[in-house]
Amino acid sequence: MMKAKEIRQMSIDNLKEEIYQTGREQFNLKIQHSTRQLTATHQIKVARRKLARLLTVLNEKVGHKA
Known about the structure:
Elements (H helix, E strand, L loop, with lengths): L3 H5 L3 H23 L7 H24 L1
Helix pairs in contact: 2-3
């Protein structure tokens, strides 16, 4: 799991790429859960929180540039 400190050190392009990958991961986890293939359901919560952290840091960085 990435800490907020590590996320804040990433560039905006890296943040966007990580957001895309985490979003796809979250989608895939939801599909697996709905088809009852996912046994570790806590992974959905982990992905959701990681995505929220990434989006928060991206919004902070973009907001400071404006």
